[in-house]
Amino acid sequence: DDEAVLQAKIDKFATFPEDDALGEEIAELYIVEGMYEEAKSMAEALLSRNPDNKNLSNIIREAVEATGGDVLGFLEQEYETNPANISNAQEYGRQLLAVGETNIAITVFEGILNESPGMTNVMKVLVEAYGEIGKTKDVISILKKLNTANPEDIRIYFDMTEAYIADGQLKSAMTWAGKAVKMDPDNGQVYANRASVYESVGMQCTGSVPDFDDKLVFNMAYEDYSLAKAKGYHKITKKIDFLKEARIPQSGDWFFNRDEYVKGGKAKTKKECYSWLKRSVTAPKK
Question: I need a labelling partner for 286 at 20 to 30 A (CA). Which of 99, 109, 166, 273 fits?
């Protein structure tokens, strides 16, 4: 008889109101019975004596949510009352992100990271949040911390490459792409990752119409994308097709530029914009 059990506990708590554990049990039973206002009142009274009790905070939140109340407002109030409550702060930050309050959420998560610098889950949330509002330098800063914490996580190298591309630092992007290739040379995605850098370099340096130098760099991207596919990474098939049709040197390009560019069967770029690239392209045989 659940109702009888609940009433017995209520009667007992009336006699022993200092028994916080019993009061918490009653609040939980109130939730089970759908008595949300009673659960909220009981949990709030107990929380005033035990402000760090996460279960009581969860009971209040569940009661507020079940009655259509302002969950975000509740989490905000909890955060302002006790910002050191990491669990509540994280939930408050997540709710802020869900309603599009990205800047406020970032402030909350930055506060968490200041208190607990090693929380990699918070770092990952900040990477996404910074990315949403275009703060690429902050993305890079957090990714460096993640890399220090998890140096073997190759996904961080991919994210770092992407972040440096977004920030326009293509030499740094290439450095991180190269690190990923060395870390796992049998992984097709590392070559797709590096190809994206070559493609970005080509796009940055190309004028209104790609010249032969530009096409050579796009050819480097094409080669890496093709290698990625050969190693089982198939998400870039459309990129391969596009580059093959519209960006890499065709037979006519080689015919007109072979004498100027090809030495020992290899063609290297001459344009100043590409001077830092060390790679060459194998020229097709005549």
Answer: 273
10 has a pLDDT exceeding 90: yes
Other Cβ atoms less than 10 A from the Cβ of 253: the count is 17
The model's pLDDT over 232-265, given as tens digits with 9 standing for 90+, comes to 999 999 999 999 999 999 999 999 999 999 999 9
Q: Is residue 95 a contact partner of residue 72, using CB atoms and an 8 Å limit?
A: yes
Residue 58: pLDDT band (50, 70, 90) is confident
Apex 85 CA angle, 83 and 86, nearest 5: 105
- Provide the token pair at 11: 């009667």
3-state secondary structure string, the chain?
CHHHHHHHHHHHHHHCCCCHHHHHHHHHHHHHCCCHHHHHHHHHHHHCCCCCCHHHHHHHHHHHHHCCCCHHHHHHHHHHHCCCCHHHHHHHHHHHHHCCCHHHHHHHHHHHHHHCCCCHHHHHHHHHHHHHCCCHHHHHHHHHHHHHHCCCCHHHHHHHHHHHHHCCCHHHHHHHHHHHHHHCCCCHHHHHHHHHHHHHHHHHHCCCCCCHHHHHHHHHHHHHHHHHHHCCCCCCHHHHHHHHHHCCCCHHHHHHHHHHHEECCEECCCCHHHCCCCCCEECCCC
- If one counts every other C-beta atom within 10 angstroms of the C-beta of residue 284, the result is 12
Task: Give the pLDDT of residue 65.
Answer: 85
pLDDT at position 48, please?
Answer: 80
The pLDDT value given to residue 16: 94
123, two tokens: 């770092």
Q: At CA 132, angle to CA 129 and CA 135, rounded to 5?
A: 80
